[in-house]
Design a protein that fits this description.
Elements: H1 36-45, E1 52-57, H2 59-70, E2 75-81, H3 90-119, H4 135-146, H5 152-157, E3 162-167, E4 183-186, H6 193-196, H7 198-211
Parallel strand pairs: 1-2, 2-3, 3-4
Helix pairs in contact: 1-2, 3-4
């Protein structure tokens, strides 16, 4: 279970009840290197080996794709939440620069105020205690997201189940943009569907695990 930016691994707590029959690891991703490739290698090195179904939300989805690119034999399937397979466009890269500047000038609290309305339909329902609070770790994460490789060809060719899940009003990626893939849309949700709509997401998660 690979978490989203700017939260940490505690964001997966709503999924714990649905995973009691599974061995679950939810590593913290910050500080594992400068690139998604380095993050993936670090995550893999921390596991005991063998295959795993990999669930990644947003930033965690990009790490999951890097893991599948480098060690496909370790991946039984990918469930990608609020993530997209393509690399950042010039417009999105410019937005990353703005985010880095925001972190450096307003800190994690300023970042939260800016991002919460994009993460949740009701921004006041977001749990700020899940925010990762180290500014340099947050900046490093934005840079790794910005510089990630394009994984579109990987997703098209991977001979393992790959499913995307997006919120109906996710501002970062839409079901329409992912229509060539297996994609599920959750009504009434924005970016962090597993937190905002845990019951609906847990049904999808359970179905996915049953087929991988």
């Amino acid at each position: 279970m690979l978490h989203a930016f700017p939260l940490d691994e505690r964001m997966w707590e709503p999924q714990r009840p649905a995973l009691t029959a599974h061995d679950v690891t939810a590593p913290r991703l910050y500080g594992r290197g400068q690139t998604m490739a380095e993050w993936a290698e670090s995550v893999a090195a921390g596991e005991t080996g063998g295959e795993a179904a990999v669930v990644g939300a947003s930033m965690g989805g990009y790490c999951a794709l890097a893991l599948a690119s480098r060690m496909p034999e370790r991946v039984r399937g990918l469930l990608l939440v609020g993530a997209r397979p393509d690399a950042d466009s010039d417009e999105r890269r410019a937005g990353r620069a703005d985010t880095i500047e925001l972190i450096r000038t307003a800190g994690p609290d300023g970042l939260w105020e800016s991002m919460a309305p994009k993460l949740f339909t009701d921004a006041t329902a977001g749990d700020k205690s899940l925010l990762f609070r180290d500014p340099e770790g947050l900046v490093g994460a934005v840079e790794a997201i910005r510089d990630r490789a394009d994984s579109t060809a990987l997703v098209r060719s991977l001979d393992k189940p790959v499913q995307f899940v997006v919120g109906e009003s996710d501002p970062f990626v839409s079901a329409g943009e992912l229509r060539e893939f297996d994609v599920r849309e959750i009504p009434g949700a924005r970016h962090l569907v597993n937190v905002e709509r845990p019951d609906e997401f847990n049904e999808i998660l359970t179905e996915f695990l049953a087929r991988v």
